[in-house]
Write a structure and sequence with these properties.
Strand order of the largest sheet: 4-3-6-5
Strand content: 15-25%
Radius of gyration: 20 Å
Structural class: alpha+beta
Distance between the termini: 13 Å
Number of helices: 11
Shape: globular
């Protein structure tokens, strides 16, 4: 979808402009009636760098390619959301939670601290606010469409929890991908492994993952063993910390996991609360898969034109 030559040429133009003159705002893409401009791309790169410091380790043309892919996904989602919501707003208390979660992700204590950081950046707090709200509205849309399809056996979860006083948790990162037309799995995997081996798993996720976690370098955080299905448990049991799995077939594509760390935690005294935590992890993973499948469906219905 994105022409690498154009991205390379544009990144050179943008880099030169930032060091000499005010950046001319050019229209780069049109997604239905939505436009993506050079300023939009600049803001997106700043945003992605804010939430994933590893991004700056990549070559400039690759950074702008990732930024453009992120903007295109964002525009497609926004077009779809307009079919279901009358305004891109959320309750103030809910937004407060979104802000706190975002600050924790980027290791800032307060929004005032973030505002001070952004003074010399090509990014404003209002832009971040809109991104957080749109992400939340998208997640709500996926939940409304697929909640009935989420399969969770709480009795089985409880049985597993009661077997031990401690449980295993994995710190995981993911890359979710599918194959382009006429592309073989071996060819795609070779490209992914090249980035992993020459750079990092995080950067490979930024470049190749279809999941929304790609913006965070594929970081999934700590995942409870009991929330994983038997296939993934078996695969993870065969690798050590620092290693990644071979591709695992999942609905809508393939999954590669990296085992970042392992720990044992004490089971909460409130077993029902522990069951709910595990159930929520399972639900979130399933909804993330549905999100990817749904996005692939609506992307085909949208007109994307390079200008």
């Amino acid at each position: 979808m994105i022409l690498l030559k154009k991205i390379i040429a544009f990144s050179a133009f943008l880099f030169f402009s930032l060091h000499t003159y005010a950046l001319e705002n050019k229209i780069l893409y049109k997604v239905n009636n939505e436009i993506i401009t050079s300023i939009d791309l600049l803001h997106e790169v700043e945003y992605l760098t804010l939430i994933n410091k590893n991004l700056k380790n990549l070559k400039k043309e690759r950074i702008f390619e990732i930024g453009m892919s992120s903007l295109l996904r964002e525009k497609v989602k926004k077009i779809e959301l307009r079919k279901y919501v009358s305004s891109f707003e959320v309750d103030e208390n809910f937004y407060k939670i979104l802000k706190e979660n975002f600050l924790n992700r980027i290791n800032f204590k307060t929004f005032d601290e973030l505002e001070r950081y952004l003074i010399n950046k090509n990014l404003g707090v209002e832009t971040i606010k809109q991104k957080l709200i749109e992400e939340a509205l998208w997640n709500q849309l996926i939940l409304s469409k697929y909640s009935k399809d989420v399969k969770i056996d709480k009795e089985k979860i409880k049985e597993e929890i009661l077997k031990n006083n401690f449980q295993t948790e994995f710190l995981l990162s993911e890359i979710i991908f599918n194959l382009d037309k006429n592309q073989s799995l071996d060819n795609k995997l070779k490209k992914i492994k090249t980035v992993i081996n020459t750079s990092s798993f995080s950067n490979a996720a930024l470049i190749h993952s279809n999941s929304d976690t790609s913006k965070n370098g594929g970081n999934l955080g700590w995942i409870k063993l009991n929330s994983l299905n038997s296939k993934i448990k078996k695969v993870l049991s065969k690798i050590e910390v620092g290693m990644n799995t071979e591709p695992i077939v999942i609905p809508g594509g393939f999954l590669i996991l990296k085992l970042e760390d392992v720990r044992k935690t004490k089971i909460l005294e409130n077993i029902d609360r522990e069951v709910e935590l595990v159930a929520n992890e399972i639900a979130n993973k399933q909804l993330n898969r549905f999100s990817i499948i749904y996005y692939k469906k609506i992307e085909k219905e949208v007109s994307i034109n390079e200008l």
